[in-house]
Design brief:
Elements (H helix, E strand, L loop, with lengths): L8 E4 L5 H12 L3 E6 L3 H13 L3 E6 L5 H15 L4 E4 L14 H28 L5 E5 L12 H21 L5 E7 L5 H8 L1 H8 L10 H12 L10 E4 L15
Parallel strand pairs: 1-2, 1-4, 2-3, 4-5, 5-6, 6-7
Helix pairs in contact: 1-8, 3-4, 4-5
Length: 261
C-alpha cells in the first residue's frame, strides 16, 4: 500500500475491462477516488464500479470517446464535480486490429491513431491544463506497448501509435518537469486480457507467443496495475520521462538467447 495515494483522485481511460479495470481495482485498494470512461461496454463499466464500491472504494463511470475533446473534458469535469480535484490521469484506452499495410484503409489508420495517440494527447492536455491552473504537481501515465520498440508487421498503425506515444511521453515529461509534473509510460507485452483471450485459448498461438517471452509465460493485468500504482505514488517521485516494460523480457531479443547469432 502507498499511503500517499489515499484520498487522491484519478481519471483512467478505458477502465471498464482488461488492464484498465485492473488498474482501477488496484488504485481503489490504495483508497483513491476514481473516474473512468467506457465507449461500448456499459455493462462492464457497471460491474467494475460495483466491484470497487463493494470493496469500499469510490468510482464513477462515464460514457466517453477519448478521441473527442468534449468527451475528455467531461471526464475531467466529472472528477472535479464528484471528488473536488485531479491528481492522476492515466491514458489507458487503446485498440488494435490486424491489417496488412498495403491493404489498410485510411479509415483503419485513423481509427487506431485517433484512440491510441490522439486520445493520449487529449487526455494529457486536459490533465496538464488542470495541473497548471491549480498549481498541482500532478502525474500522467500513458499506456504504451512493447511495440513502441518491437516492429509488428500487419499492425503498422498500432506500432506507429505506440512509437508516437513514446516520444510524446518523453517530450511532455521534459516540458513540464520544472513544474513538478511527472509523465511516464508503461509498455506491457503479452498480457492475459479479454482482447487476447481468444488467441491464448488456441494452444498453438499460446505457444507461439510464450516462445517469444524469456520468462515463458503470459503476464497478468494485476502485474501491470502494480507498476501503475508505483508510478502514481511518491515512491517513484524522481522518475519522469521513462517507459517501464512489463513484458517478461520480450524486449530483450530472445532470439539471441544462449549466445545465438
Amino acid at each position: 500500500m502507498y499511503q500517499d495515494l489515499k484520498g487522491k483522485v484519478a481519471v483512467i481511460t478505458g477502465g471498464s475491462k482488461g488492464i484498465g479495470q485492473a488498474i482501477a481495482l488496484r488504485l481503489a485498494k490504495e483508497d483513491m477516488n476514481l473516474v473512468f470512461n467506457y465507449n461500448s461496454d456499459a455493462k462492464g463499466a457497471e460491474r467494475a464500479v460495483e466491484k470497487i464500491r463493494n470493496n469500499g472504494g469510490n468510482a464513477v463511470a462515464v460514457h466517453a470517446d477519448v478521441s473527442e475533446e468534449a468527451d475528455v473534458k467531461k471526464l475531467l469535469d466529472t472528477a472535479v464535480t464528484n471528488f473536488g480535484q485531479l491528481d492522476l490521469w492515466i491514458n489507458n484506452a487503446g485498440m488494435e486490429n490486424q491489417v496488412p499495410t498495403h491493404k489498410m484503409s485510411l479509415a483503419d489508420w485513423k481509427k487506431v491513431l485517433n484512440v491510441n495517440l490522439t486520445g493520449t494527447f487529449l487526455g494529457s492536455k486536459s490533465a496538464l491544463n488542470y495541473f497548471l491552473d491549480h498549481k498541482v504537481k500532478g502525474n500522467i501515465i500513458n499506456m504504451s506497448s512493447v511495440h513502441e520498440q518491437i516492429p509488428w508487421p500487419t499492425f503498422a498503425h498500432y506500432a506507429a501509435s505506440k512509437g508516437g506515444s513514446k516520444l510524446f511521453t518523453e517530450t511532455i515529461a521534459l516540458e513540464y518537469a520544472k513544474r513538478g509534473i511527472r509523465v511516464n509510460a508503461i509498455a506491457p507485452g503479452a498480457i492475459n486480457t479479454p482482447i487476447n483471450a481468444k488467441k491464448f485459448k488456441d494452444p498453438k498461438q499460446l505457444k507461439d507467443t510464450t516462445d517469444l517471452i524469456p520468462m515463458n509465460r503470459i503476464g497478468k493485468p494485476s502485474e501491470v496495475a502494480a507498476a501503475a500504482a508505483w508510478l502514481a505514488s511518491s515512491e517513484s517521485s524522481y522518475v519522469t520521462g521513462e517507459t517501464i516494460f512489463i513484458d517478461g523480457g520480450m524486449t530483450l531479443y530472445p532470439s539471441f538467447e544462449e549466445g545465438k547469432g
